[in-house]
Amino acid sequence: MWRQALVTISRLPEFLDWLLAVIEPLIVMVIVSAIGYGGYWLAFGPETDPRHARMLALLTAVDENWKVVVLLAVPLFYRTVRRFLEQVEELRGVKRPRRVAQVERAPNPPGI
Known about the structure:
mainly alpha; 4 helices; 71% helix; 4% strand; elongated
């Protein structure tokens, strides 16, 4: 009974890693889409529409509170940007060899 519970609990970190790997890109795509839609609306939307005035008010608020946006954006995009830069082979003419990742996992808990 306890052994089965421990085996089930030991699989939890793998599930959480998978969940993070799925949700993080979705959050990034939603934010990028919202920014893209807002930019498109500001460039091509009618100026008489009340939503246009609300969008300008939102951009004014973001402009006045840009430090909060930076504090929220850095942790949100850090892992995604880091993974992308780890996979880049050539950047500005500088090539680097690819690393071969060898991961060894110890059994969890160690006695099993």
